[in-house]
Structure formats: structure tokens, C-alpha cells
Write the C-alpha cells for this entry.
Amino acid sequence: MMIPNLPSSRRMKRVMSLFLILGLALLFKPLGAQTPEAEKNFQQCRACHNLEGPKLIGPTLSGVNERRAQDWLIRFIRNSQEVIQSGDPIAVKVYEENNKIPMPPHNLTDEQIIDILKYIKSGGKVDPQYAAAEPSADQKAAEDLALKIAAEQEAREEKLADIERDANRNFGTTFIITIIILLVVLIDLFVTKVIKAKFVHSTLILVALFIIGEIIYKESAAVGRQQYYQPDQPVWFSHKVHAGQNQIDCKYCHTAADYSKSAGIPSVNVCMNCHNLVREGKVTGTEEIAKIHKAWESGEPIQWVRVHNLPDHVFFSHAQHVKSGKLDCAECHGEVETMNQIIQVNDLSMGWCLQCHRKTEVQFADNKFFMAYEKMHEKFSNGEVKKVTADMLGGADCMKCHY
């Protein structure tokens, strides 16, 4: 701001007045108040923590900024289990004091976590200057388009599942009819002899054998594969609600994905981490969540139906793909955060896996899992190999998956 050419004493007073006004503005401005994004991100925490008042599943967060260093809070919020497993005494103590219930990892940047911590410090206030503006026509159009695309994708998946089921029924019907025709032709050829022309018998037998052989080949190739399989579950569970709307990380429920062959199916106590307090769903009401409480009280596990299965002769490790290969879950399972009911979207065939291995570039450099590949490291270092794909590391070797 320009100051007019005033006598020195008056100019000094004007400058001091300006500084006083700015100082008062800063004094009375709610410095801890944060943006709506911080408030939105904090919703992930509300299921287990209160800002003020009684403890929920986890401790009350008021004063956490004073109790813990910011860098420690950032690491703990991002992945508490990693900090606990490192042996950090504070993390271990917090874990044990809260009934050894793990806090889910959060896919947040340092800046987003710092914003959440400021939001907590402000007591849950959002600065009025950041009040959400009414979305523009273009933003509304983009949101409507995104919803439309998601709905169309879900409709396509349902349609494909119906087509697959119809095809399977048609295969069975065709197989039975062909067997009946073959038997009738053979009976006529050797017993009744109604048809005098032998070439008719020969033609019908050859056609029948070809159809039967084709069906047997296709069904044999598909043994253990079940694309578009979408079984009903004992409890209505929506990934769209949990992974989509509530943004719960996949590995909070499927805890073994980083270190085991199987990603794991969550036990009842994992469900109870949230549903100890959340007793009613916006879509399902109380009936479905009551089934979880019944299982918890009776000690009987929920008999979830596994959707993605591989044949017994196939070796597959989630740890190798998720932890070492750094693959996102959606690569194999599709966009589960859009699914109310999980469906197997890919056929998980050998051809599908090989195609993925040939095109997928692995994070070869600075990856401890691949340290043993000395010759490949030499080629990678001297520029002979620009990128390393899974098939170059044995991903196309039969013995890797079939022992």
C-alpha cells in the first residue's frame, strides 16, 4: 500500500497504525482453522477417535499435537503398524494401551497430515475464507459425467456376467443335446437301421464328436476359472461404501497382502473395530450389521464366500505382487471401490497373467527383492536394458507358477 507524502511524524503514525491493524487481524484470526480438505480427510479418523470427550476405539485427539512430535505423528498416521513393528517404544505403548487394535494405514501426503493435525489443534474449525464455493457448471458436468461412466461400467459388468452365465447354460444344453443325437445315430446304425444311407450316420457322428470335443476342450481350459463370478455373501457388504465412500485402505481388512500368499479375509474383530460403534448403515439399516454383532457374541466366524480363486496347480503370492511388484489391487480385482457386490472382472487365465508379465515394468532399482539378479543389475546399470519387465525375471517360466 502506498503512503502519501506526509510530514515525517504523521507518516510514522500512519505506518504504525497499519502495523497495528495487521497485528490485530492476525491476533483475532483463527490461526489453527483449516481448509475443508482437512475436515474431509479427518472423516477417516472420526469412526475411531473423538476430538473432545470420551475415548472411542482409539484415544481422544485433543492435545495430541502437544503430546507427540509432528514427524512421529506423520509416520504413525501414515502407517502405524510399520512404526510399531520397528520397535518404536511410544508406538508400541499406544498400541498396547488401546487393546492392540491396529489403526489402518492412510494414503495421505505429509502436507495433508499436517493439515489434519492443525484441524485437530483448532478444535475442528474451518476458516471461513475457505468456505466451499458453489461448484461451477463445468464441475457439475464433470461430476455428472463421472457418475454416469461409473454407472455404465457397473451395468456393463452386470451384462457381461449375465452373458457368461447364459453361455455356460447354453454350453451345457448343447452338450446334452449332442450326446442324445450321437446315441440315437449309433442306435440307428447298429440296431434300428431306419436311415439306409451310411454317409448320414458318418456325417452326424463326426459333427457330434467335433462339437463334444470342442466343448470338452473349452470347459477343461476353464477349469478353476470363474470370470464374472459374483456370489451372495452371508452379510451384505459393500466395497463401494467402505473402500469408496469411507476410503478405507484395502490392507486394513486384507492385512496379509504384504507378506503372505493370500491377502486374507477379515475376521469379525476387524469388523468390530468400527461396528462396535457404527450400528446402522445408510443403505442396509441395522439388520446386516446385527449379523456381525451376533457372530462376535457367539464366537462363530462369518463364512465369507471367496470370489477370486485359482486352480490348485497354480502358485500365486500376493506378497510378491503387492509388496515387491508394487501393483495396485485394481490391476487384478478391478475398481472394487465402485462395487456394491464384488465380482471377478478378469478371467485370471494363464494367457492373461503372461500378458501382464510381458508389459508390466517392475520397480527394479532400489528394490531389495531383486538384489539377487546380479547380471540384470549389470545390464540395467550400463544402459543395456532400459526397463525390466516381470517376464525378464522369470515371469514367463513355467516352473515359477507351476512348481
Remarks:
- The CA atoms of residues 13 and 19 lie 10 Å apart.
